[in-house]
Amino acid sequence: MNIKKELVLREIAGENVLVPCGKTVFSDNGLFMLNEVGSFIWKILPFVANEDEIVEKILAEYEIEPEKVKADVDNFLASLKNLEIID
Amino acid sequence: MIKTAEPYMSGFLHRRALEKGIPVSGTFELTSNCNFSCPMCYVHGDVKRREEMSAKEWLSLAGQAKSAGTLFLLLTGGEPLLMKDFEEIYTGLSKMGFMISINTNGSLVEEYLPVFQKYPPSRMNISLYAADAETYKSFCKADKFDKVVSAIEMLQRKQISVRLNSVFTAGNYEKAGDIIRFAKERHLNLKPTAYTYPRLRVDGKAGVNTARLSPLLAARCAVESDLLRFDTETFVRRGKKVIERTDGTDDAMTCIRCRAGRCSYWITWDGKMRPCGMMSEPETEPLQVCFEQAWAQLRKAVAGIRLSPECSVCERRNSCPVCAAMCLAETGSFSKKPEYICTMFEQICNLTEQQLMRIGNLHEIIDSCDDVSQEDFCEY
Hints:
The complex is a heterodimer of chains A (87) and B (380).
Chain A: E1 7-12, E2 15-20, E3 31-34, H1 36-44, H2 51-61, H3 66-82
Antiparallel strand pairs in A: 1-2, 2-3
Helix pairs in contact in A: 2-3
Chain B: E1 2-5, H1 8-20, E2 25-29, H2 55-68, E3 72-76, H3 86-96, E4 99-104, H4 109-118, E5 123-127, H5 133-140, H6 145-157, E6 162-167, H7 176-185, E7 189-193, H8 200-203, H9 215-229, H10 232-242, E8 264-267, E9 273-274, H11 291-303, H12 309-313, H13 324-331, H14 339-368
Parallel strand pairs in B: 2-3, 2-8, 3-4, 4-5, 5-6, 6-7
Antiparallel strand pairs in B: 8-9
C-alpha cells in the first residue's frame, strides 16, 4: 500500500509515535501514537497489497480473534484514509 | 489502535520522558548574534569563546539527540535566522523527524518563507516587545515593526502556527496593554512575562538587569496583563490557584522540579549542554564526548543541585514560579533564596486577592440588582 505522506515511526519514551516530517504537517501540530499492533501494521504497510494481507500477517504474529483483527484493521486504515496518509 | 495526539500529547510524552530520564525536548541556540539590541537580552553580547558551530556539527548532534529520544526541538538565538547556514540546518532537521519550533524576532522570516512553506515548522514563536513602530524601534533598536507585522500576517495566511512572546520591562511596560490587544485582534496566542532574568550569561552579574522592572512593578504588570488577557471566569480560576497557601514542609522542593536536565536540555551556540538557557551552569561537552554521555553527566549534575531550604517550608511554594535558574541568576547560587522572586510573587498574591475580592463584590451587587445587565459591570 502506498504511503502518501512523509511520516517517521519513532519510539519516544517507550511510546510508538508517528511523527510528521518534511512537508507533512497536521492540524494542531498533531502527533499520532500507535499501539503495538498499529506499529506492526505501519511497518508492513509498504509491503502489502490489501487489507486481507494485513489481517493475515497479524494473525500469523499475534494470538487475536480474526473478527477483532478485521475490525481493528478496518478502523486503522479508515483513520489513515481520513488523514490522507493512504488512498 | 491509532490515537490522534493533539498538543496535550506533548505533556504526556514529557511526563513519560521525565520518569525515564530521556531527553525528549531540546533547544539548539544556533547563534548569539542578533540584528536587534533589546536591552534585557540574556545572550546577545555573550563573550565569544569560539566560532559558531557549523551546520555539520549541529546536524551530527541532532542525529545523536534523535537516537537518545529527542522529539521536540526549539531553534533559538540570538536571532537564529541570522545564522549563515540556517537553511541547511533547518531543512536537515526537518527531514529527521523532530517537532520543530523556532524563536525569532520575525524580521527575516519573509526571506525564508519559501523554506517554511516547504518544511512547515510546528510553530513560529515571534518576539514582540511593542505594538507600534515608534516604541518598537526605541526598544529593539531596529526599525522593523512593519516588516515583522507583515511576516506574522504572511505566516498566518500560510497557516503556519504563530505564537507571540513578550517581555514587559522598563522600556515597554506602559504599552503592555497594546501588545495584548494586538494579539487578541489577530487571534494570536500570546505568552507574556513581566519577570526578566538577570543577564548572568552576558555580564556574569547575578541579580542585575538594569532594563527590568522592580519586583513590585513587575507584579502589578503581571496581574494587570492577566486581567486584560483573560475573561473574568478564567482570571478567577487562575487567581484562586495563585493565592493558595500550603502548610507543612515539602523536602522535594529543594530538588529541581521542572524538566531542565531531567528530560530537557539546551545546547548553547558554542556547543555546551546545559539544563536550560537561563543557567550558566552546570554544563557538559557533547562535542568533546558524545551526546549521550554529555546527557548522562548533565542529569547527574542536576540531580545533585539543592535549592533553598526556605522554599520547602514557604506557604506559597505550590504556586510560586521560582525555579533553579531563577535562584542562580538572582543570587549566584542555587541554594540561596531569591528575594526578587519572593517580593514579586507576594505582591502578585496581594494584588490578585484584591482583584478577586473586587470581582466577588461586583457579583454580589449584580445578584442584588435583577434589572441590571451583568455586562454593565464587566470591565474586561
